[in-house]
Amino acid sequence: MKHLLLTSLAFSLTAPAFAQINTLQPVGFSQVKINDAFWTPRQETVTKVTIPVCIDQTEVKTPRIRNFEKVARNDGEKHEGIYFDDSDVYKAMEAMAYSLKNHPDAALEAKFDQWTDIIAKAQQPDGYLNTYYTLGGLQNRWTDMERHEDYCAGHLIEAAVAYYNATGKTKLLTVATRFADHIDSTFRLANRHWVSGHEEIELALVKLYKTTHNKKYLDLADWYLQQRGHGYGRGGIWRGGSNADYCQDGTPVADQKEISGHAVRAMYLYTGAADVGAAKQDTGYMKAMKTVWQDVVYRNMYLTGGIGSSGHNEGFTKDYDLPNEDAYCETCASVGMVFWNQRMNLLTGESKYVDVLERSLYNGALDGLSLSGDHFFYGNPLANEGNYARSEWFGTACCPSNIARLVESLGDYIYAKDDNDIWVNLFIGSSTDLTLKKGSVGIAQATKYPWQGDVQITVTPVRNMAFPLHVRIPGWAMNEPVPGNAYRFADQDTTKFTITVNGKPARYNMEAGYAVLNQTWKKGDVVALHLPMDVRKVVANDSIVQDRNRVALQRGPLVYCVEHPDNAGSVYNMILPLDAQFTTAYRPDLLDGVMTIEGQVPVFRPAANGEQVVAQQEKLTAIPYYAWANRGKGEMEVWLPTKVASVKVAP
Q: What's the chain's Rg over C-alpha atoms?
């Protein structure tokens, strides 16, 4: 049972007194049990492999925990590592918290509590908590906006809220709340201007507000948003204002229309803005988020759902600048796309945001984690000549713990509700019990998605009950690969999705991308959704010059690639005609089980005399993009040329 301690924190356990602009409420991970053929093994890998790797790196191989211990000893020792390393501790702890709900483990819980004790001892009497400044000179705290103090605070808050939701324990929540109170008194209440160099605290404060029901944390999140775009951000790397857009500080948030700067920072900022806009009924934030979202998705997003094309600024350049081999596409940015698009769905009730969420989840984000769970991508290119591989760890180690916490918190993204309706957003084997005004309803899904398009949804109300059930129909199942015109299918598929209830064709209305089944439900009613899972060829808008005369393959939510081990060692020497025909085959022996795409295409190779190039029909085998680079270095491409001029033939 969860308890909030009646301490000087003065948590208010009553709901806020104002209504919310959004009608959709998230269904949290702690309310959802996942039992899915695709995702359950991945969660188990994160629990058994990835989280122990994060713990080992945090506690043994790097000085991250050691810095907290040094603060507690207070004997003049120096800080080791990078100034934002505290955040990696907190992200690892957040992943641990989600894991404890999915796979209860007394030893892991004890480790979390041990770290909490160490962190609590490092907190200063006024609530401040940051090892870089505490060990390096507290007199310098809050003097450099780029030093990530509040970024680290945000991740502390997220870890504390996750652990409270998973276990009901409040010690870390108390630490986090004291730090939030320190920040509030230092800045908002003191009327001192400040712009966070790396956004994160905004969304975290909304989580703290929703957990404690203390409105000052929502007000503080809004205060952070309102600081931007007024010339206050003159510290750190954008000193003088020339690089203000790097941190989304060139324009007030409510006036922003275009994406700019660092991709991860942007995603965290816009997630927080959507949260605050929903909670405060701020239509200005809502309008801005819709406008910026269109700029991201329509003109600056890869087919994989990845964002941030440039490694120079880890972010955005100009519209339609989407190189493949040089794509940066940081794993954390795709994780951020999941966060932001979930909030936009809750804010609007429109399924297109879940379409983008799903694309980023299954492709851009999942690609960041190896199948073994112990190697990672920081960047995620869409083509490679054989010189790129996954790493065991990084000096800047945000991505491993970030993808770990996303996979473990998957339950956050499957369902939504309001007082009267239920939404099914992702097709993942799972179950939950939801409370509507009329009573409680059990929802359970069974599916082999994404390999198959059949989804069975069992509805179990406590008694016969009338309510609308909203089932998302993905855009790709209605001939739209992504919202906007950046990408389109090369042909129109006339195969339609079907929905039945208890074996009979269902009556439904299409609303905002959902099939809405409004009827009286009884225990054991079964909704069967069938989605077409044909192989589709995708072509890009001609403005994306890097993809001109090229085509990509997609099946269901998965983007595919061709990789060297399946194609005689090379893939740059083939073309993919628009009229090529393909078949699919499930390979349980390959890459932990994948559906492959196979077909005959022209492949160019040197002739025996070495002076000519000859083409012959050979088998192309494509695998899901997320699974590449698990079998050593070698060539890979997502976008295959349709013309001979783009073929590369090795001598």
A: 25
pLDDT tens across 542-584, in order?
A: 999 999 999 999 999 999 999 999 999 999 999 999 999 999 9
Contacts 24+ apart (CB under 8 A), 568-573: 568/603, 568/618, 569/634, 569/635, 570/635, 570/650, 571/635, 571/636, 571/637, 571/640, 572/385, 572/635, 572/637, 572/647, 572/648, 572/649, 572/650, 573/603, 573/604, 573/605, 573/647, 573/648, 573/649, 573/650
Structure tokens that stand for 347 in this block: 């804010």
Q: Which of 158, 202, 314, 358 is catalytic?
A: 314
Is a pLDDT exceeding 60 seen at residue 19? no
Give the Å distances, CA to CA, from 430 to 43, 419, 557: 13, 21, 18
**Dist CA 275 CA 391 (whole Å):** 34
The CA-atom distances, in angstroms, between 290 and each of 75, 258, 630 are 51, 10, 37
pLDDT tens by residue, 194-251: 999 999 999 999 999 999 999 999 999 999 999 999 988 865 444 334 478 888 999 9
Annotation says 332 is catalytic? no
pLDDT score, position 21: 55
> Which one from 54, 398, 399, 561 is the annotated catalytic residue?
398
Q: Minimal CA–CA distance to 89: which of 1, 163, 155, 14?
A: 155
**Sequential DSSP letters for 102-138:** HS--HHHHHHHHHHHHHHHHHS-TTS---HHHHHH-G
The structure's pTM equals 0.95
Q: What is the DSSP letter of 482?
A: S
Catalytic annotation on 398?
yes
pLDDT by residue (tens digit) across 411-448? 999 999 999 999 999 999 999 999 999 999 999 999 99
Say which residue the tokens 């192309």 belong to: 620
Is the CB of residue 491 less than 8 Å from the CB of residue 481? no
Q: Is the peptide bond before 450 cis (omega within 30 degrees of 0)?
A: yes
Query: Where are any strands of DSSP class E within 272-393?
Result: 383-385
φ, ψ of residue 421 to 5 degrees: the values are -125, 160
Q: Are 419 and 408 in contact (CB under 8 A)?
A: no
